[in-house]
Amino acid sequence: MLSISNLHAAVEGKEILKGLTLDVPAGEVHAIMGPNGAGKSTLSYVLTGRQGYEITGGGTTLDGEDLLALEPNERAARGVFLSFQYPLEIPGVPALTFIRTALNAQKKARGEPEITAPAFLKLAREKAALLKIDFDMLKRALNVGFSGGEKKRMEIFQMAMLSPRFLILDETDSGLDIDALRIVSEGVNALRSPDRAMLVITHYQRLLDYIKPDRVHVLAGGRIVASGGPELALELERDGYDRYARAA
Amino acid sequence: MSLATALRTRDVTELPGKRDEAWRWTDLRGLIRVLPAPSERFEGDVGQGPFDRLADDHHVLVNGGEARIDVAAGKKALAVLRLVSRGAGAHASRVTVNLAAGARLRLLESYESDGASLAQTTLVIMLAEGAVLERIVLAQDHEDAVSVSQADVLLAPTADFGQTVVASGSRRQRIETVVAHPGGRASVRLDGVYLLDGKRHSDHTTVVTHTGVDGVTNQLVKGVVRDQARGVFQGRIVVNEGADRTDARMGHHAQLLSDRAEVDAKPELEIYADDVSCAHGNTVGAMDEDALFYARQRGIPEAEARAMLTEAFIGQVIDRIWFEAARRVLRTWAGKRLRG
Q1: What is the edge-to-edge ordering of all strands in the sheet holding B201-210?
Q2: Which CATH class for the A2-247 domain?
Q3: pTM of the predicted model, to two decimals?
């Protein structure tokens, strides 16, 4: 599904990713862990096409297609979804309007018919109930005045509505209390399927108790320096990143 | 110095220009070397105006003329006022609006031109005690037109005046509102939106003078300027000595969407009374690129994402309009304009 090969990327002339190689096959959940400043957020922004990140070497394909050549919205239409570490506030645009615009734009890009208003509302009610989101909140301007936890829940709600194929969760657990973490994780786990893949970026092991990864990678100094099974996350929790930070 | 005088005397030196402080950003003297010939009478069909379907009472002035709208005490009315320019001549119009005590009026006003005309409109608007006027203005001039609208608003205590001007600019466009505010629980809303592209220019100038106690003024103007267009905002609120307990709020916020776009803003609060509550905020910035990326990451193409964010930005002004049907007309108009 997603294949990153020897990826180099720079921000303002400073190289952050220094030869990152990673394969995430369909049906699998991979966790990326690493110390602060290792390049975790840079990776998520490079994969989604944010401005200001220069690709200086290597490449990335999604199902064989050159992902980095596509516009951010084209990547979204191919199924790439990033749950932001700090979701943006969109004043004046109700959450439902925003999500319906996004869903129909994606459908249009894929040559599918638009979703009708009644079908959209039915879907929204269903997904909101699963994530314990008050439906009235969806009529308010997206994320404006929402708490950190509500914003994260809204990210997962959007994910559920847009039904992406490749999911990137960037520090999704930050700012969540234990109940919210459980709800959010259940929402993410509900999306696990043989034709989807996920990249879970996290500093702490805690999230991985709820979203169980197939593989765990350590990102340090802009490269993957170690890979293993779920036990690697526990080891990191116990021993810290020091060993890998030095190796990088 | 005024355009009205210049048109009457046919003397270009009467045109206001850079040397007049109130006109330094909308310099007509420097722009117009020779006055265009007086406009001819226009007998043809001027088509539909933007608000035609919302009201039955239509006042249409084509290439100048006079109109009068009176609302008797305690009566309610809804009127369309169209100031239409056809051709490339010069002309002046004069409109009187008079609301007797307790009268209510929704006035739906539009400026429509189709070429390089030079148009001046004078409005005198009077509200007696307890009268309520909502004035909605849509200025959709031709890019080559020069259009100046000047309204003098006289309020009695307890009158309620709400105004929203939505403008797309022209070669030079100025919409000026001067309000004599007596206080006495009279209330004023003076909102505006400008959406400018190409080389269009739009000037929103307002002056409110509070002369009595307990007056309220609330102003929110937002602009979005792209290409080489230029927006001008001059908002002045004067609180005279003794006009205590005045509550005045002014906000002007503009987005510049290109390097060559320009916004000139001069918010002024002049306060000579002691016990007042006044605030103003003025910001000029770019579109929030992070919000734009967020929308694109969700699958919304760039042009649509920009239009959506801009619509939301100015939507906060449109939402303050009391008359829902007018709100809908203006939302649709803005949506079309933003999507080319």
Answers
A1: B65-71, B90-99, B118-127, B146-155, B172-181, B201-210, B230-239, B262-271
A2: alpha beta
A3: 0.86
